[in-house]
Amino acid sequence: MSEDTSTNHQDLLETWRSQIRQADINNVFCHCRDCEAEWVGSAWDENCPSCGSTKIERISCWQFPDD
């Protein structure tokens, strides 16, 4: 692989990673394992708004298909 191709590949990879990080910021599907509440949040460390539990399952919303 030429140096130009390698550099372009690295640039594309960093752009892709940056877009994934941006998608994660305000789109986190949360499920409380204690009270079964579900919500979309914007933090990976928030407690359940219904019961205050810290036993939260979190999934980035961009991982769900649109259809």
From TrEMBL:
Q: What is this protein called?
A: Uncharacterized protein
- Organism of this sequence: Limnospira platensis NIES-46
Q: Identify the taxonomic lineage of the organism of origin.
A: Bacteria, Bacillati, Cyanobacteriota, Cyanophyceae, Oscillatoriophycideae
